[in-house]
Specification:
This protein has 376 residues and is mainly alpha-helical. It has one domain. Helices cover 76% and strands 4% of the residues. The chain is built from twelve helices and two strands. It has a two-stranded antiparallel sheet. The chain is elongated. It starts with a helix and ends in a 7-residue tail after the last strand. Mean pLDDT is 76; it is low at 136-142 and 344-376. It is found in: Membrane.
């Protein structure tokens, strides 16, 4: 390679290294873009009804914060009460179970006594695991300030993007060559529509799962049924792993009433998730976003490995956007054009910004056709 090629290679390597170092910041920026896109689409719906842009944005932001505050208001107080009760009910249950085992040892042959488990020894063996869990919880609490800072960063970026989305979009489009800017603008439109479709489908599925969970837990007379249902619906935003995460607190709270309710809650959640995955999601997402199940799972594993929990939460919107860019740029504009003969017909698009208007882009298309030759 010559000197110019070496310089280009070094520049690419350095760029990839810098992007890797700031990957968490880029992920937070993407979260702000997704949130701003959602609120902007909601504001546009209000604008269609005759509402002014400023009032529509304020109303959209107010709805968003109302939903967030309502979520924590429904979730936090019941969970604190129930899990405080759980902290002293579980040791009592262990003591009662240990008493049953001691009584069982007196009634069975002595040869079978060594096979009866000892609760105290099991607790001692589980002590290192409990210590690791408590250590992880302490690390999570100690890092809560960092989480608050990241949330505030996302909210501030969302507000800036929502104030004037076209200006930031225009800056992004100008990164590309002039002949490709109109194409990029069209790809961004498709990304926006796909994100809106994913959000709409996810909200519908989340509402159905939450409603079914509340009804089922109420019929089983499980405490904090409303809070558990709302949590199940929210965690349904994380496919595959979210349902597993939502069943754990429900089973723990069901343990406060009766042991049989634990099994009943597990069966209820299995039925709900099978209904959601086999009926609700295919119907809702069929006209919204088409992603293969294996692609969804692989994307979750990939993003959670490199970006942690935030990457897991944003895995689906990241996959939706990545799919559109790969399909439009790599497949349609690059791979589908390989082997085509462009010597006979060439077409180019020149996009320019008139000096008096920066919002409307003009395109000029010119086609040059060569006359056929005898060799052809």
């Amino acid at each position: 390679m010559n000197l110019g090629q070496w310089i280009g290679l070094i520049a690419i390597v350095l760029s990839l290294y810098i992007l890797w170092q700031i990957r968490e910041v880029l992920l937070l920026m993407f979260a702000a873009v997704v949130l701003a896109t959602t609120l902007n689409r909601l504001a546009k719906r209000f604008q269609r009804s005759g509402m002014k842009r400023g009032l529509a944005v304020i109303l959209s932001v107010a709805i968003f914060f109302t939903v967030i505050v309502g979520f924590f208001w429904l979730i936090v107080p019941p969970f604190v009460q129930q899990f405080n009760e759980l902290t002293y009910r579980v040791p009592q249950g262990f003591q009662r179970f240990n008493g049953w085992l001691d009584e069982l040892r007196t009634r069975i042959p002595s040869q079978l006594v060594p096979y009866i488990p000892d609760i105290n020894s099991l607790i001692q063996q589980a002590q290192p695991f409990v210590n690791r869990v408590l250590g992880s919880s302490f690390a999570l609490v100690s890092g809560s300030l960092e989480v608050v800072v990241k949330v505030l960063l996302v909210l501030v970026l969302t507000g800036m993007l929502l104030a004037d989305p076209q200006a930031y979009r225009k800056v992004f489009v100008r990164i590309f060559p002039s002949f490709y800017r109109r194409r990029v603008d069209g790809i961004l439109d498709k990304c926006e529509v796909s994100l809106e479709g994913w959000i709409t489908g996810a909200l519908i599925a989340m509402g159905v799962v939450g409603l079914m969970s509340v009804v089922g837990l109420s019929l089983l007379r499980v405490k904090a049924a409303l809070a558990l249902g709302v949590l199940a619906g929210f965690l349904n935003l994380i496919p595959n792993l979210g349902p597993t995460m939502s069943v754990v607190p429900a089973m723990a709270i069901a343990l406060l009433d009766a042991p049989w309710k634990v099994l009943a809650v597990l069966i209820l959640y299995i039925i709900i998730q099978q209904t959601e995955s086999n009926f609700i999601t295919p119907i809702v997402m069929a006209h919204q976003v088409s992603l293969l199940p294996a692609v969804t799972l692989i994307s979750q594993l990939f993003f959670v490995t490199f970006f942690g929990f935030l990457g897991l939460f944003l895995a689906l919107p990241l996959t939706v956007v990545a799919k559109i860019w790969l399909q439009e740029v790599l497949i349609k504009d690059v791979m589908d054009e390989w082997g085509h003969d462009h010597t006979k017909e060439t077409e180019f698009v020149i996009v320019s910004d008139p000096p008096d208007s920066g919002d409307n882009w003009m395109a000029e298309t010119q086609t040059d056709t060569e006359p056929p030759t005898d060799d052809a």
